[in-house]
Amino acid sequence: MVDMDELNKRFDIHNIANNKLAEIEKYKCHIYCCHSTGCKSSGSDDLIALIKQILEENSLSEEARVVATGCMGLCAQGPLIRVEINGKKDVLFKRLDANTTKTIMEKYVLPALKSEGEMVVADELKPYVLSLDLPFFTKQEKVVLKNAGSIDPEDIAEYMAHGGYLALEKALKTMTPQQVVEEIKKSGLRGRGGGGFSTGMKWELAAKVPTVDEKFIICNGDEGDPGAYMDRSILEGDPHAVIEGMMIAAYAIGATAGWFYVRAEYPLAVERLQKAIQACKRNRLLGNNIMGTNFSFNVDIRLGAGAFVCGEETALIHSIEGARGTPRPRPPYPTNKGLWEKPSCVNNVETLANISKILLKGADWFASFGTETSKGTKVFALTGQVEHSGLIEVPMGTTINEIVNEIGGGVPEGKKLKAVQSGGPSGGVIPAQHMNMPVCYEELKKIGSIMGSGGLIVIDDSSDMVALAKFYLDFTVDESCGKCAPCRIGGKQMLMLLDKINRGRGKKKDLELLKKIADAMKKASLCGLGQTAPNPVLSTLRFYEDEYTNKLLDGKVKE
Amino acid sequence: MDNDACLGCQTGDKWRRKRGSLIMALHEIQGVKGYVGWQDAMDLAKTMNIPLARVYEVLTFYNFFKLVAPGKAVISVCTGTACFLKGNDKVLERFKSELGIKEGESTPDGLFHLQVVRCVGCCGLAPVCVVNGRTYGRMTPEQVPVILNEWREAFKEEA
Ligand SMILES: Cc1cc2nc3c(=O)[nH]c(=O)nc-3n(C[C@H](O)[C@H](O)[C@H](O)COP(=O)(O)O)c2cc1C
Ligand code: SF4
Ligand code: FES
Predict the structure, then answer these.
(1) Cα-flanking dihedrals φ and ψ of residue B62, to 5°?
(2) Counting atoms of ligand 3 from 1, which one is nearest the CA of B78?
């Protein structure tokens, strides 16, 4: 006979967490190696094997452990390795290769394990040290990215040791679905996928629709914005956080099954998610009667296939159904009629990754970050002409100046900041003179851009804004699904005009026409893609009309 | 029909009882063969009981799917925003001139296929290109011939 106590213990998350914690505590030294797409491509796999080998050769496998983690945020400096030794300050090493890693082991880790007190980094290693006192690290506020970079995303026990699945337990055992919805509503969390709709309200709407036979929760991991990788890093670095968020959402709205829709361009994210789902199944966190309650739930993964428009929720639903990813008019909203006509709630990866933290620490704690109307933190992919290009997380309301000049370390090569672009192909620019603008949904909208999903592109004074606008429009025209005329035809015409202007053949009336078509597209397009496609053009026209007129045949050249 | 040799049938068999599986099945076929050919599409349609026209509707809508065999090494040059700003157009030009083909084409010897993609999520390493799943960051045009040679050598060793 199976011993029930024994079984319960084996699947008890507290028990698993405690065992793991005890195991971790045995080690004096923890070597965290970034094992995300970025650092893997710079060779982190080999370094991990090398470190393990050196530890073994020196019979130190009992004293030191190697943790292959998710993204540490500074892919440009990769491969990154952080060495944590009890009683000593953490040291982060950058741009490593096999030789340097060997030297780190011989000249830093091995002696440090034998010595008491602080350990000085040898001179020859100094060029490879990345100071953890940099504003890039100290100015961030990690809520969603807390685990990424410090746990092994492929080890469910480690996630539990860091409080994983406690929020799910709290929800299932001590809260009603309505209470969960209320808590999320109270937190002020808004969708991180671009729209910024209140997550609690969306859940409330979804919960109200009766579950006849099925109801779905869908995680949007399409991350279409080219130049952004927040969702990839979250899925790669902390997949269980997204799964846990989805399970809590399912409980709150009464969903019977969940779907992850992930870009096919993210194979590692898909692999980590798959492994995490399997680990959940093995630990009875997915399936029937989860944690001994009446809650039963299962999830599955579906892949995208390289169509930006599939990030739009109705197109995404068509894509899962195995059809072309074309959007349809809303209403009906997916919460009423979604996947296979069943009520469905679509949430972004980062949105779901916030949920467990809110339930554990409380709505008030969450709402203590951010501004009046934009609560919590936001993950941004800071790229372009900036010293420290990387993945960052800051409280909503942090200014552009703090993000670019402090955290990002400013514009390199003695150039000056010209603008920051947010919202990708649906967004616009924030010129340098608005540097003190706090980043939140309302302010960004006021200036003619949007929060979007979190891409922040730093542009220096050598950049051509007309070319940038054309780049984005090129993208949206390419990605238009062609279903409605304003987007299909309007986009092409705008692009032709822009091209003409860019080649120095445009006239004043072309600028007028450009604005007119943009206006029509915004008003008459069926989905968000067409409605927002003119934004990069309109926004650059608003602040840099000079650059357009300077290119016109009949334009005045200003000095 | 001989089921063992029929990739379309096997894949269809595996997926037909699952919901929302057409795109997954197509991914699987492309994963094995590098593209989804006419015969495989036919077999899949038959096994999954989906009209062939529907299969092609999907195949042609999504950029990811290829209808004809690409070269042995698929080179994807990222044209996402971060890579655009860091000058990946020059890297793309170099690939084109070194290989003598345009994007979307394969070399006559069947070794290389050149394509552009919109962001592979390694923007921190921009400019980026990917060859058969291997990511190359901080690209320069000068690296292009080096990478091509690396792959040519690898294929020679295989042969
Ligand atoms: C053209 C287009 C592309 C979109 N791409 C994404 C995307 O890549 N990821 C995402 O989460 N939401 C995307 N959205 C927004 C989704 O339609 C949807 O609002 C979102 O997934 C809802 O989740 P949230 O409320 O958690 O933000 C896109 C919308 C449009 C119109
Ligand atoms: S706006 Fe563009 S992408 Fe959206 S439905 Fe119309 S044609 Fe398709
Ligand atoms: S823009 Fe090239 S990897 Fe993202």
Answers:
(1) -95, 125
(2) 2
